[in-house]
Design brief:
Toprim domain-containing protein, alpha/beta, about 15% strand
Length: about 120
């Protein structure tokens, strides 16, 4: 049985699909699906209250709205950022996502830290 210690909070399914292959440790990825309600956020994260939270949202207005909500409701959350030029997590190259995740002490699968561009 894998013990989950980290939870990545993302906006949508495509973000999850972009991040999941990079990770080399058990991490729960929770999709908000654009949720901006404090009650709904609590419902999503309550099962993981003993875990460390990491928010990885898009570099747009909705991402900032979610980031503020998470910061307000869960102030100990670690916030991860993609570059504004990529716009969203799902459009960010995996080598860049791997660098961001590695900087936050996530274990990364070998090969993802190479710039293939």
């Amino acid at each position: 049985m894998k013990i989950i210690e980290k939870v990545l909070i993302v906006e949508g399914r495509q973000d999850c699909l972009q991040l999941k292959p990079i990770l080399n440790e058990p991490v729960e990825i929770v999709c908000t699906n654009g949720t901006v309600s404090p009650h709904r956020l609590d419902e999503l994260l309550q099962p993981y209250e003993s875990c460390d939270f990491y928010a990885f949202f898009d570099a747009d207005d909705m991402g900032e709205k979610l980031r503020k909500l998470v910061q307000q409701e869960y102030p100990n959350t670690h916030h991860l950022y993609t570059l504004p030029r990529y716009g969203g997590v799902e459009r960010t190259p995996r080598y860049h996502l791997a660098k961001v995740l590695q900087g936050a002490k996530f274990k990364i699968k070998s090969g993802y830290l190479l710039d293939k561009g």
